[in-house]
From TrEMBL:
<dbReference type="InterPro" id="IPR003689">
    <property type="entry name" value="ZIP"/>
</dbReference>
<feature type="transmembrane region" description="Helical">
    <location>
        <begin position="153"/>
        <end position="178"/>
    </location>
</feature>
<feature type="transmembrane region" description="Helical">
    <location>
        <begin position="215"/>
        <end position="235"/>
    </location>
</feature>
<keyword id="KW-0472">Membrane</keyword>
<feature type="transmembrane region" description="Helical">
    <location>
        <begin position="69"/>
        <end position="90"/>
    </location>
</feature>
<keyword id="KW-0812">Transmembrane</keyword>
<protein>
    <submittedName>
        <fullName>ZIP family metal transporter</fullName>
    </submittedName>
</protein>
<dbReference type="Pfam" id="PF02535">
    <property type="entry name" value="Zip"/>
</dbReference>
<feature type="transmembrane region" description="Helical">
    <location>
        <begin position="125"/>
        <end position="147"/>
    </location>
</feature>
<feature type="transmembrane region" description="Helical">
    <location>
        <begin position="185"/>
        <end position="209"/>
    </location>
</feature>
<feature type="transmembrane region" description="Helical">
    <location>
        <begin position="35"/>
        <end position="57"/>
    </location>
</feature>
<keyword id="KW-1133">Transmembrane helix</keyword>
<feature type="transmembrane region" description="Helical">
    <location>
        <begin position="247"/>
        <end position="266"/>
    </location>
</feature>
<feature type="transmembrane region" description="Helical">
    <location>
        <begin position="6"/>
        <end position="23"/>
    </location>
</feature>
Length: 267
C-alpha cells in the first residue's frame, strides 16, 4: 500500500511541474500540450483494452466467480458512467480556463495568450478547485491499479502525471499573471495535485466496505472504464483544442499507444 500511495502522490504532484513551466512563457506552447495530452490518452486506452480488462476477467474466472464477463462489463460501464457524471456535475476546466484567457490563442498559435487581468486570480483558484475535483477519481484509478498490479500501476501513474502537467499550467498561469507571485501560483497547483491521493484513500476505503474480497478485482475494470471515458471525453478533445496542426494530436496518440504496447510486450 505504501508504494500505491507514493505513486498516487507523485502522479498528482506532476501539477507542480506544470506550475513551474507556467512561469516560463516560452514553455507554454500549444503544440507540446496537444502532444502530451494525446500521448496520455493513447497510453490509457491501450493499457485498458490490452491489459487491464483481460486481467480483471481472467482473475474473476480463476476465482470461480459466476458470469465473469458480465461482472467485468458491468464494472467497466460503471467506470464510464462515473466519469460522465463527474463531467455533468462539475464545470468544465477547459471552458473555465478559456474564459479566463488561459486557453485563448495569441493569434499566431504560439503561447496561451494570458491576459494581465485582476480577475485571473479568482479564475485560477476556481480552476484549481475544479481540477482538484477531477483529479480525485484519477488518484483512485492509480491507487487501485497499483494494488492489483504494480507493473500496470506504474504505467498508469506515468500517464496520469503527463496529463497533470498541463493542468498544473492551467492553474498556475492565471494566478501568476494576476498576482506576480510565483509561490502563490505553485501553491495552488500543488493543492490541485494533492486531491489525487486524498481521493484515492477515501475511495479505496469506501470500496473495501461495500465489496467482498473476491470482487475487489472489479476495481480494475472500473479503472479501465474511467480511463477510456476520461481519454475520449477530456484528453483527446483537449489535445485537439490546443493543437496548431492535426499531426500533433495524432502523433501523440500513436506514440502513447506504441510506448505502452512495447512495454507490455517486453514484460
Amino acid at each position: 500500500m505504501i508504494w500505491a500511495i507514493a505513486a498516487t502522490v507523485l502522479a498528482g504532484l506532476a501539477t507542480v511541474v506544470g506550475g513551474l513551466l507556467a512561469l516560463h512563457p516560452g514553455m507554454r506552447q500549444r503544440g507540446p500540450l496537444a502532444f502530451g495530452l494525446a500521448f496520455a490518452a493513447g497510453l490509457m486506452i491501450v493499457l485498458s483494452v490490452v491489459e487491464i480488462l483481460p486481467l480483471s476477467l481472467s482473475t474473476l474466472r480463476d476465482s470461480g466467480v459466476g458470469r465473469p464477463l458480465w461482472w467485468t462489463a458491468g464494472a467497466f460501464a460503471v467506470g464510464c458512467a462515473l466519469v460522465v457524471l463527474i463531467d455533468a456535475v462539475l464545470p468544465e476546466p477547459a471552458a473555465t480556463s478559456g474564459a479566463a484567457g488561459v486557453d485563448a490563442g495569441d493569434g499566431g498559435g504560439g503561447g496561451l495568450g494570458l491576459q494581465d487581468n485582476p480577475r485571473l486570480r479568482r479564475s485560477g483558484l476556481l480552476i484549481a478547485l475544479v481540477i482538484g475535483a477531477h483529479n480525485a477519481p484519477e488518484g483512485l484509478m492509480t491507487f487501485l491499479t497499483m494494488l492489483e498490479s504494480p507493473e500496470l500501476g506504474v504505467g498508469l501513474a506515468v500517464a496520469i502525471a503527463i496529463h497533470n502537467v498541463p493542468e498544473g499550467m492551467a492553474v498556475a498561469a492565471p494566478v501568476f499573471a494576476a498576482t506576480g507571485r510565483r509561490g502563490t501560483a505553485i501553491l495552488w497547483a500543488t493543492v490541485a495535485g494533492l486531491a489525487e491521493p486524498v481521493g484515492a484513500l477515501a475511495g479505496y476505503f469506501v470500496l473495501r466496505a461495500v465489496l467482498p474480497p473476491e470482487l475487489l478485482v472489479l476495481t480494475l475494470a472500473l479503472v479501465a472504464g474511467m480511463m477510456i471515458a476520461l481519454s475520449l471525453r477530456e484528453l483527446i478533445p483537449a489535445a485537439r483544442r490546443y493543437q496548431t496542426h492535426p499531426a500533433q494530436s495524432l502523433v501523440g496518440l500513436a506514440a502513447g499507444a506504441v510506448v505502452v504496447w512495447t512495454s507490455l510486450a517486453l514484460t
